[in-house]
Amino acid sequence: MWHSAWNDAPLLNRISALLAIAAFCALGAVAVKWVAARPAFAIQRIVVAGPIVHADPGYIASAIQQGLRGTFFTIDLAAARDALGKVPWLKSVAVRRQWPATLEINVVEHQPLARWNDVALVNTEGEVFDAEYGEELPDFYGPDGSAAEMAQRYREFAASLRARNLEIDTLSRSPRGAWDVKLDDGMAIALGREQIGERWARWIQVSERYGPRIAQGGQLAAIDLRYANGFAARITGMPDPSAKGRSAAGQKKAQASEPARTPASTAGHRG
Asked: Which pLDDT value is given to residue 197?
């Protein structure tokens, strides 16, 4: 069999042609790889697109230098994207080539909404991220995985307070699902675990209707809405009714101790 194959000239020609093609392809691949790695195809321009407000430009530049390895053709875009994704404040990163020697990087930053458990931040989409931020933000306290729900509740509550020039200072959700709100005027609101939206709406309706009359001349310190048909209030600085009564009695006593002026005494003085 082998003897007959060696004597089969057309078969040998076909095998030789296939080997030549394979060798040519391998050589071509090596040549292309070698050419692509030449300095002539190095990245000469990097464009960072997208508004950068919070991220450190120096940090971004350092991440680009560390993540960019190779030329226009050989650079690993996924590795470059991962390197930039570690920069604080960057929410998403897209990297693409632009002929002939440009790399375009599109970045989107996190938009801070609140602080998270004193260790991180929450963005406007309810995602937790690590970054430094020196300005004032409301505080969220809740179990892991609840940031998105808390961001949604925060927007709901804050919208109803805007007309009254009030803001949320602290929003808390316990591991058992109980919600508590503290406003920037110091008032605390307990919502419990059920019918959160309905209870909040009831409080907004009552407070808009009765306003300062709820505090009865004092300062409204806390509201407990964990009741089916009402709420409990803790009021500080209320006037003391007994003190008012004592003041009125003292005033009457003072009037009684003064000498009375009668017509008889006037007539005597006159004569």
From this structure: 95
